[in-house]
Every structure is written in structure tokens, then in C-alpha cells.
């Protein structure tokens, strides 16, 4: 909504208009905008209702002069064609918006030479902090190097050292939960279709698979390196069918499990009667595969929320925080 000036010209609604409609002071409106806890909830609701009625839009430039903040969080991301990085990015953007910040996203094409230009762009926009979605170790290293310029947080299951925060799902523990579930079903020949080498999550899941087998006193089963695609799952499934199907297969993501299930079905191999299958991620539709897929659910929204909260704590001058999020095993019909 616009208001009319003395000369009859319309202008966008300002803080004074919001204050007048809500029946509060200009300072109270400012406190609500800045997320101050020193405002009663009923007053906060009244101010927000007035903002909605007037279609009020904060003057970010003026706000930055007062708070000395840009209201921007830089997000450096790669691996976005895949579910994990894409879902984490969505979680961060949602949490940043809820906190009153805008996510300025820089996307890499898995090319380390693009890191510096993106960081330079973030600096030019005076971002208040940077979150790095890091599927690869070299990107964790880049985040450490950027840590000297301001608050930086890595979103990965990786050690970052002092000064750079981290939030990540415990990938190895998720894999251990999947394999322990299979061992508990009396299965002893458990193969693993991993993600591609060089991916932090893939390597952590391989480690968890091997750890769980060792803890159960079982030898390592067959291991095939995948590429996260359904086509790869289908090809590996056909190869393992030719060599003799293992009792169970733990796939490093649900998409490869989808291709694997198709190969088994085409060959007349029954799931779970002949072979049990477990995936990872709990992608949309996993419960509606044939059979419904047992998988390890990653709480991507929680990761995004904790990442933004930890980064904003660092922006406020707090120490670098490190959070590990637990994945959840979801048991369905693909394991006997």
C-alpha cells in the first residue's frame, strides 16, 4: 500500500506509517524489525499485522547504516544436481529468510578456480557471513582459507579446525545404522554400492559400512563405486546378478537404489525374499517404490536451520560452533 504526501503524490509506506497504524512508537517498530526480544508478543503481532496491511517493505540500505549489517548471507554451493546439496541449500535459504536475512548464492561447477571470484563478489556485497556447502575436501580447505575474512561456516561432515564453524549429518553413523539393521536380520553377506570417490559423504558412508561389518565380526562384502545415478545402480545390479546376488545391498543414495531395484525386478530377483536393499536420503517417493525402500533419512531442514543459527551466532561475535546432526533409519518393506 502507498500513502499520499501533502502534494498528493503517493509514496511507499514507511516505519512511521506502520507505527501510527499499530499504535506504537517508531522505536518499537524498529525493535520488531531487528528481532529484539524486548517486545511483547501481542505488540509484535500488531506491528506485523500493520506491516502486512500497508505492504511495508524495510529500507535495507537505511537499516544497514544503523545496524552496520548488510542483511546478506553468502552461500557458496556446488554439487547442486544431487539431492543432498540441493536440499541443504533450500534449508539454508528458508532459515535465512525466517531470520530476516537474504541468501546471496554463488554456485560452483565443481571448479576450484571459481571460488575466489565468488568470495570477491560476497565481499563486494558486504555479506555478514558465509556458509559453504562442501561436498569435497578441497572446498572445506577453501572455507578454512576464507575464515580469516569474517564468519564462515562449513556445511559438511568434516573437521574444519579453529575459527570456522561446521554443521553436518553424521554420515558414518547413518551407514552403521543401515548395516546394523541388516545384520540384525541375520544377513552376513552385505555389499555396498558407494557414491563417487572424492565426495566426503560417500567416503564417510563407506567407512560406516566397513565399521559396522567389523563390529559384527563379518568380512567386508562387495564394494562398487557409483556416481549417484539410477543408471549406475541398474548397471551394478546387473553385474552383481551375473556374479551371484549378495544377501543384502546397502546403496549410498536412494537414486542408485531405484536403479538397482529395477535391475533386480527385471531379473526376477525378489526383494526382500532373495536380497534386502537399503538406501540413503529418504528421497521423495522412496516410500512408494516397489517395494517401499528402507533408507536413512537426512534431516535437511534441520541442517539448514542449525547452519544459519550457528553462522548468525558467529556474526554476533560468538565463537565458531560445531554441530552434528543424527540421521534416522526408516525401515520399510525392502528389508526382510
TrEMBL record:
It holds the Pfam family LacI. Transmembrane segments: none annotated. It comes from the Bacteria. GO terms for molecular function: DNA binding. Residues 13-67 form the HTH lacI-type domain. Keywords: DNA-binding, Transcription, Transcription regulation. The keyword Ribonucleoprotein does not apply. Signal peptide: none annotated. This is LacI family DNA-binding transcriptional regulator.
Amino acid at each position: 500500500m502507498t500513502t499520499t504526501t501533502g502534494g498528493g503524490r503517493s509514496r511507499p509506506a514507511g516505519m512511521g506509517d506502520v507505527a501510527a497504524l499499530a499504535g506504537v512508537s517508531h522505536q518499537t517498530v524498529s525493535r520488531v524489525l531487528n528481532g529484539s526480544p524486548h517486545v511483547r508478543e501481542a505488540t509484535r503481532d500488531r506491528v506485523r499485522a500493520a506491516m502486512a496491511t500497508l505492504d511495508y517493505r524495510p529500507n535495507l540500505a537505511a537499516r544497514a547504516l544503523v545496524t552496520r549489517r548488510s542483511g546478506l548471507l553468502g552461500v557458496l554451493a556446488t554439487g547442486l544436481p544431487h539431492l543432498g546439496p540441493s536440499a541443504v541449500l533450500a534449508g539454508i535459504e528458508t532459515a535465512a529468510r525466517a531470520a530476516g536475512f537474504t541468501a546471496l548464492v554463488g554456485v560452483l561447477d565443481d571448479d576450484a578456480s571459481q571460488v575466489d571470484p565468488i568470495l570477491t563478489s560476497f565481499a563486494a556485497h558486504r555479506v555478514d557471513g558465509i556458509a559453504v556447502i562442501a561436498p569435497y575436501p578441497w572446498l572445506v580447505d577453501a572455507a578454512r582459507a576464507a575464515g580469516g575474512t569474517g564468519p564462515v561456516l562449513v556445511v559438511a561432515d568434516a573437521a574444519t579446525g579453529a575459527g570456522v564453524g561446521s554443521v553436518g549429518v553424521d554420515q558414518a553413523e547413518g551407514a552403521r545404522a543401515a548395516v546394523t539393521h541388516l545384520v540384525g536380520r541375520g544377513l552376513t553377506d552385505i555389499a555396498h554400492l558407494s557414491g563417487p570417490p572424492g565426495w566426503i559423504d560417500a567416503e564417510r558412508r563407506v567407512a560406516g559400512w566397513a565399521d559396522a561389518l567389523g563390529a559384527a565380526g563379518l568380512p567386508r562384502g562387495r564394494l562398487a563405486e557409483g556416481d549417484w545415478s539410477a543408471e549406475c545402480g541398474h548397471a551394478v545390479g546387473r553385474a552383481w546378478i551375473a556374479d551371484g546376488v549378495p544377501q543384502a545391498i546397502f546403496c549410498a543414495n536412494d537414486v542408485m537404489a531405484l536403479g538397482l531395484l529395477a535391475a533386480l525386478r527385471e531379473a526376477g530377483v525378489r526383494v526382500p525374499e532373495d536380497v534386502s536393499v537399503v538406501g540413503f536420503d529418504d528421497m521423495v517417493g522412496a516410500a512408494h517404490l516397489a517395494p517401499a525402500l528402507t533408507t536413512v533419512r537426512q534431516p535437511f531442514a534441520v541442517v539448514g536451520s542449525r547452519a544459519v543459527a550457528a553462522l548468525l551466532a558467529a556474526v554476533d561475535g560468538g565463537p565458531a560452533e560445531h554441530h552434528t546432526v543424527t540421521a534416522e533409519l526408516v525401515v520399510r518393506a525392502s528389508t526382510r
